[in-house]
Design brief:
Layout lengths: L9 H10 L4 H24 L3 H22 L9 H16 L6
Helix pairs in contact: 1-4, 2-3, 2-4
Length: about 100
């Protein structure tokens, strides 16, 4: 059985996270999914249609998991590191939005 590394800080975790998102198509899918979360959350608060929050979560994971299962061919880090992965997703999204990471 393979022993998993335990990440104590986000600084330690983020290089691993980026390595799990090396495929450009996967990164693009993550970017689209995360961007849609922003739009859906804004729409939920403007319209007070709170069910859009659930839609935002479902579609975000759908885009990400397609990227992992079909393009990266790896297991999403969310399964083992849910909070670090959530933070990593938002940081990667910001770095792609600002041009620090190519997509």
């Amino acid at each position: 059985m393979k022993e998993e590394k335990v990440y104590r800080t986000f600084r330690e975790f983020y290089p691993f996270y980026l390595g799990e998102h090396a495929n450009r198509t996967s990164r693009r899918l993550h970017f689209v999914g995360t961007s849609m979360v922003v739009v859906l959350l804004i729409a939920a608060f403007i319209t007070q249609w709170w069910w859009l929050i659930a839609v935002a979560l479902v579609q975000a994971y759908a885009f990400a998991w397609v990227g992992h299962f079909f393009f990266e061919r790896n297991r999403p880090a969310t399964f083992q590191y849910p909070l670090l992965s959530l933070r990593g997703d938002w940081r990667m999204w910001w770095e792609m939005l600002t041009g620090k990471i190519r997509f």
